[in-house]
Each structure stands twice: as structure tokens, then as C-alpha cells.
UniProtKB/TrEMBL annotation:
Name of the featured protein: Elongation factor P
Protein species of origin: Candidatus Doudnabacteria bacterium RIFCSPLOWO2_01_FULL_44_21
Keywords: Cytoplasm, Elongation factor, Protein biosynthesis
The keyword Amino-acid biosynthesis is assigned to this record: no
Pathway: Protein biosynthesis; polypeptide chain elongation
CDD domains hit by this protein: S1_EF-P_repeat_1 (cd04470), S1_EF-P_repeat_2 (cd05794)
Domain Elongation factor P C-terminal: start-end pairs: 132-187
Any single GO BP term: peptide biosynthetic process
Molecular function, one GO term: translation elongation factor activity
Family: Belongs to the elongation factor P family.
Domain Translation elongation factor P/YeiP central: 70-124
Entry annotated with the keyword Mitochondrion: no
Top-level division of the source organism's lineage: Bacteria
């Protein structure tokens, strides 16, 4: 068990244990008013349910760091149960429940390496890179005169995810997608 210092809560990204569940600090604000102890207001995301809550940490309050481990695994497939991964060292299959990964499955390619976060030996989240490259499998062809700045069209990526891309993108292109917003970022160099 690791105890975090009050000042550690000022930065986002820390994972703490609150009510015996792992929470990640996604926003924090340090406040100090005259003749009162400092307070850090924070928004916390429950890594098991995805729910966000607000909490004010008081100076001197004991904050326990969550014992979270990360393992690189290979994505196999997904079904109604969740996403199935293989641990490359033990060859065991790890199932991450659908409720945890339903927003991220659209970015996973069969056979791709993915980092899974575990809390007390239970998978709780996928640690995807912020940007990921995916191939365009289907889109309408561009028309002569289309510009790089004018308009967008839907494109189906190799994972089945549909994203709006600029008109100059064609089938076979590799595009970079933001995994947090789900938006097109740029065309990736081949």
C-alpha cells in the first residue's frame, strides 16, 4: 500500500484507491483561502465503472494509491461478453468485460498489442495510445476539385468504426484517429 502526498493530487493521471475501488484523477484545482487549510478539488473517474465524481481532498487527509499493474496483451476478438486478449507470456486468455471496453473496441485490430490495466488481478481498463493508425476500408471516392479544407465524408475503418474524414481521403489510405474523442486527426504517412 502506498500513501500519496497531498501535493501529488495536484497533477492529473494519478490513480488512487477510494472506497476500495480505483479512481483516476482527471481534473484538479488547488484552493487556499485565508485562515483555512488548503483543499484540492478533483474530478475522479472510477476505472471499473467509468462514472465520474467530484471530491474535495483536505490537507492532511490520507490518500491511498491504488495498486494498479499494466500488462501488454494481444487483442484476439470481442463478443457479447467483452474483449478477449491473450497474455503472450502465459498464453492465458483474459476477458475484459464489455462495459469497460465498449468505447474502445472500435480502435482495436485483431492481433494488435494492447496494454491492460489490472487492479487486484482484475482487468479494469485498456491503456490505449492517444492516437492510433487505422486503414480506410470503404469510403466514397473524392470528386475532382475537392479541397483539403472543404467538407468531410464518412469512412469505414478496418475495425468497422465509421469516422468522418476530409474529402481527399480514399480507400486504402491509413488515417490517424484520436482514441479519446474518436475523431479523425490526419492522414498517416505510409
Amino acid at each position: 500500500m502506498s500513501v500519496l502526498d497531498f501535493s501529488d493530487l495536484k497533477s492529473t493521471g494519478h490513480i488512487i484507491k477510494y472506497n476500495n475501488e480505483p479512481y483516476q484523477i482527471i481534473w484538479s484545482n488547488f484552493m487556499r483561502t485565508a485562515q483555512r487549510k488548503p483543499v484540492i478539488q478533483a474530478k475522479l473517474r472510477n476505472l471499473m465503472t467509468g462514472k465520474v465524481m467530484e471530491y474535495s481532498f483536505k490537507y492532511g487527509e490520507k490518500i491511498e494509491g491504488a495498486d494498479v499493474t499494466k500488462r501488454k496483451c494481444q487483442y484476439l476478438y470481442s463478443d457479447d461478453e467483452g474483449a478477449h486478449f491473450m497474455d503472450p507470456e502465459s498464453f492465458e486468455t483474459i476477458v475484459v468485460p464489455k462495459i469497460i471496453v465498449e468505447d474502445q473496441i472500435k480502435f482495436l485490430k485483431e492481433g494488435s498489442d494492447t496494454t491492460i490495466m489490472f487492479f487486484e488481478d482484475r482487468p479494469i481498463a485498456l491503456d490505449l495510445p492517444i492516437k492510433i493508425d487505422l486503414k480506410v476500408m470503404e469510403t466514397t471516392p473524392g470528386v475532382k476539385g475537392d479541397t483539403a479544407t472543404g467538407g468531410s465524408k464518412p469512412a469505414t475503418l478496418e475495425t468497422g468504426y465509421v469516422v468522418n474524414v476530409p474529402l481527399f481521403i480514399k480507400e486504402g489510405d491509413v488515417v490517424r484517429v484520436n482514441t479519446q474523442s474518436g475523431d479523425y486527426v490526419e492522414r498517416a504517412s505510409n
